[in-house]
Amino acid sequence: MDEGDVDAADAARVLAGDPDAFEGIVRRWQARLVNLAWRFCRDRAAAEDMAQEAFVKAFRSLGTFRGEARFSTWLTSIAVNTYRSRLRADGPPLLSLDLAKVFGAAASPLQGLQERDQAEAVRRAVLTLPARYRDALIVYYFQERDLAESARALGIAEGTLKAQLHRGRELVRRRCAALAPAGRSRGREEGT
Amino acid sequence: MTTDEIDGILSSEPGLEPSSGFVRAVMDAVHEDAGAPPLPFPWRRFALGVVACGAVAVAGTMAGPQLSAGLAALAQPLAPLAAVAPELGYAAIALVVSLAIARLPRLLARG
Q: Is ipTM over 0.95?
């Protein structure tokens, strides 16, 4: 029995009146939903809270899962809609793009740390994009660059997603070009 | 920074492990949700709405002649406008009625 069959069997048990059967679904998909939520907010507590809300919504909507799409696509779609709604209601997360503020004024002498900081700044830059580009980039990379699955999870056409990805990457590139590595350089010069 | 570098960074996001109590918390929320009674249909409000609609329909039928006289009086200031272009008079009345209809639900919701 593959993973999809196990999920379908658990869903059938839940629909037959056994809510405890949902625990199997939560155990199998918890990491995926928490990680997706993390990419939307970059806050562990908020990510788990959002993932919990998504699971409860999935539990309520199990009757709508017909098996036409993969269970993972169906669940991801519910999660994406939940996270979008949460960000719309609560506003985008308050994240700084200034590396000196994010990681402390003192520059790291280690190249690895500097690269990690830069990568984190790029991921945060994604969260500052208009919602359609942000969602497209987050879901596409979360789905391991599977264009078809990402488009299904987002409920848009593949062509639309391609255009949004292109525009989104370009916006991130521009915003990251505006990041001030000077602050770090200055810190490094002062430190030496 | 190039888009290829951005592509590489976004492709290599490190994973996050859910906390140990996450499954328990979700299942507690699920049980709470499963045990909650479904939202009852608001029959009382529905009945009040039906009665109100009926009352308005009856009142409108009975007060029709007076209303048309009143409307004619209301439209009096628009007479010069209507003389120039009748469509503008109708458009102005339609605009006023639309605004009133748009405001009414808000007033009712507040009340």
A: no
